Amino acid sequence: MTKSVFRPPATALAALAATALAATALVAAATTTASAATGLGQLAAAKGRYIGTALANNHLGESAYATVADREFNSVTPENEMKWDATEPSRGSFSYGGGDAIVNHAQAHGQSVRGHTLVWHSQLPSWVSNGGFNAATLTSIMQNHISNVAGHYKGKLYAWDVVNEAFNEDGTRRQSVFQTTIGDGYIATAFQAARAADPTAKLYYNDYNIEGINAKSTAVYNMVKAFKQQGVPIDGVGFQTHLILGQVPSDLQANLQRFADLGVDVALTEVDVRMQTPADSGKLATQSSNYNALTKACLNVARCVGITLWGVTDKYSWVPDVFPGYGAPLLFDDNYNAKPAYTGMGTALGGTTSSPSPSASPSASPSTSPSSPPGRSCSATYRTVNQWNTGFQGEVTVANTGASAIGGWTVIWAFPNGQTVTQLWNGTLSQSGANVTVRNMSYNGSLAPNASTTFGFTGDWSGANGAPSPVTCAAS
Ligand code: G3I
Question: How far is the CA of 63 from the centre of ligand 1 (A)?
């Protein structure tokens, strides 16, 4: 079996170019993985899904922000630009500048757009929330808002979050101005207005803390079930998925499936996984495995159409503003370096593929050892951190053993007992049969003399879990 493994983004590839060249002749099986960069959106598209990001118009002028957004994502959601306060700040006066800019940018870069959001209690101008309208008038104001905004974008959006966050944690209705003035029926009325305004957009109900099976998600489930029975035009449910580190609900997949079984699409619409800052390698590893798990949960549900991250970079995440002491919830750090979470998600998205020819399996030892340019050298030290039934966690320390700084490294070993790496962080992985090649990320390739860095991984084993030897390192 040949495994080609998820590639890092182009920025990381650029840093790896010299290393990859040095290794090309030495690890023929692995070189098939060192071609052009593959963004998350492309990986998802190959599976008929999308990977999106919230996009903020005021950051699009920052080239790194736009570069990463355009390279990695094939769907975007305006973070704030289509909300009520932006689109109808005063009654009957509509403004679409920010939303149009996002749509134009997305169209120019082949990205679909999820509209967000038509009816929400937050970012709602006070002329609506404090207007003192009666039910008939507020219904008409809501219908007029939907008719204008969804009408303006008619035919241009993949989907709309028609109503956002209408339920409390206990499954009762949130006492928004729409709920208290119009009553339960406002949600169905909003969906009917959205369908009339844009017949081709998929119409979603969107909420947070509904990722697992609980009182809130069950209330939403019951509403969707009733809507389907009554012919209310709902096409999908958005699970925002604002998670805390280590808390991916174990029943996420089962919950997505029960909604899909009602006959609606499902999507993870605002994903982030926040941690107490500062980040460290352990938290980043957990975050990577959380992203891996939530991505797999979606992929395992046929009607889970895609995943949207709630931002491009940690630098601009909403999290620290709302949860002081928490942050670093996304795939790219403040400097646009891909984090371990990027690899966790990418691996789940099919960065690993199998070749059709078992005869391609190489022998259980590297055909040759990597070499370093004169004056540059490194060492790699392998250890098994932990081991259980059929799984284990390993760690490799890479040290600069030369007198010169190095700009990158490649570590190669052959497993003696058929072990398989299932997930790896702080490096980019290729495994072909027993042979494993790991190259540095953009952020940990440069090492001063005597400096070291580590990467970690989890793997599967059976029978025996012997440590590989030799474990070789090539510097560049
Ligand atoms: O535009 C003003 C600017 O003029 C002003 O100088 C500045 C001062 O604070 O505020 C700016 O507005 C901010 C706006 O984002 C645009 O940046 C608001 O203060 C700020 O509250 C607002 O936060 C947004 C938040 O929704 C509001 O509820 C976040 O960016 C956005 O990420 C967040 O997104 C929501 C989803 O829509 C729904 N689900 C939850 C998610 C996270 O809260």
Answer: 22
**Beta-strand pair 391-400/378-388:** antiparallel
Task: Pick the more confident residue, 269 or 354.
Answer: 269
Q: Are 442 and 339 in contact (CB under 8 A)?
A: no
Catalytic residue positions, numbered:
165, 270
Domain topology for 378-475: Immunoglobulin-like (2.60.40)
Judged by phi (left if over 0) then psi (alpha if -120 to 50, else beta), residue 417 lies in alpha
pLDDT tens digits along 72-85: 999 999 999 999 99
pTM greater than 0.90 (yes/no): no
Place of tokens 């039910």: 135
Give the ligand 1 atom nearest the CA of 116.
37
Q: Whose CA is nearest to atom 14 of ligand 1?
A: 80
Convert the pLDDT of each residue in 324-354 to its tens digit. 999 999 999 999 999 999 999 999 998 743 2
Domain with CATH 2.60.40.290 in the chain: 378-475
Point out which residues pair with 414 in neighbouring strands: 435
CATH code 3.20.20.80 region(s) in the chain: 38-348
Q: Which fold has domain 38-348?
A: TIM Barrel (3.20.20)
Binding site membership of 239 for ligand 1 (Cβ less than 6 Å):
no
